[in-house]
Amino acid sequence: HILLLVNHHIISDAWSMAVFFQEISVCYEAFVKQAPPVLPELPIQYADYSLWQNEWMKSRELQEQLSYWKKQLQGAPPVLQLPLDYPRPAVQAFSGAVESIQFSSELTESLKNISCREHTTLFMTLLATYLVFLFRYTNQEDISVGIPIAGRTKTETEKLIGPIINTLVLRISHFGNKTFKELLNKVRQMTLEAYENQDLPFEKLVDELQPERNLSYTPFFQTMFNFRNVPDKPKQMNGITLEPFEIERTTSKFDLTLDVTEMEEGLFVLFEYNTDIFEPETIKRMLCNFGNLLNGVSLNLDERVTTLPLLTDKERHKILFDFNN
């Protein structure tokens, strides 16, 4: 059997879907046993969360967070200058595809150990590596990346189904001559500050800052980094084995989105990309380059971001010998 669920983002987010499947599991097992399902009573409903947010939007804290984000994004470059395969269309069509790669559990453990040693999270270490990747691909010293954040800072919202997710813009500048360890510390500080100011809805930020709008790219950032750490969905339901059914993805919300999931086998890394501006071969090469950076980081945190290994052996040979000849 294939169970297909289609639900609009206006009523749900990734965290909600995990809660939904947990509740489906409880209900299914109860019905099989011909018993009424027993679900824990929710301390609040989504309407309560909505009311709280509406009240918060009138508070002094909103103004404080708005001031933080205005300062953070002042003078940010409007576009990330990634090397494109095709000219950017005048109007985005959001056509897309994905390419993925599985990294080893050994590499994952090494990165987790580094994160622990440097008092960061795995998310921060991966984000710092992605920023190095973007810097090396663009040679741009000022980079903004979007990240989704669950927004469930109150324990009452943990079992709630509804769209609580928000988007934050993380901006790093002056990569210059930094070592990866120095950049990682900067990313850690920036991320913690962003978490403290995460309640301001991204849509409100756009309305307030009024960036110059262009139909060919999204405001503030054109690339997103997503590290999936939502609650696990059940894998068994009363003797039934559940597994995801892969379907072809044909849309892309941004130029490039790096999606990382921590699995038992290691890190599963996926690039969702805009097919109007990128060829599949380019994205496959990007995945290999990102993997080389991760390996370089795992071996030496004191390496400068400009000299961390990026190219594959084949690419290096092509530049040094094939092109050079």
How does the overall form come out from the CA principal axes?
globular
Largest β-sheet summary: 4 strands, mixed
Estimated share of beta-strand residues: 15-25%
Query: Count of DSSP E strands?
Result: 8
What can you see in these coordinates?
By secondary structure, the protein is α+β, with helices and mostly antiparallel strands. It has nine helices and eight strands. The protein has helices at residues 14-32, 46-56, 60-73, 105-117, 122-138, 180-196, 202-209, 280-299, 313-323, and strands at residues 96-102, 142-149, 166-173, 223-228, 236-237, 240-241, 256-263, 266-274. The mean pLDDT is 94.
How do the strands and helices of this protein lay out in sequence?
Blueprint: H1 14-32, H2 46-56, H3 60-73, E1 96-102, H4 105-117, H5 122-138, E2 142-149, E3 166-173, H6 180-196, H7 202-209, E4 223-228, E5 236-237, E6 240-241, E7 256-263, E8 266-274, H8 280-299, H9 313-323
Parallel strand pairs: 4-7
Antiparallel strand pairs: 1-8, 2-3, 5-6, 7-8
Brief account:
The chain is of the alpha+beta class. It has nine helices and eight strands.
Features:
single chain, 325 residues, alpha+beta, four-stranded mixed β-sheet, two-stranded antiparallel ribbon, 9 helices, globular
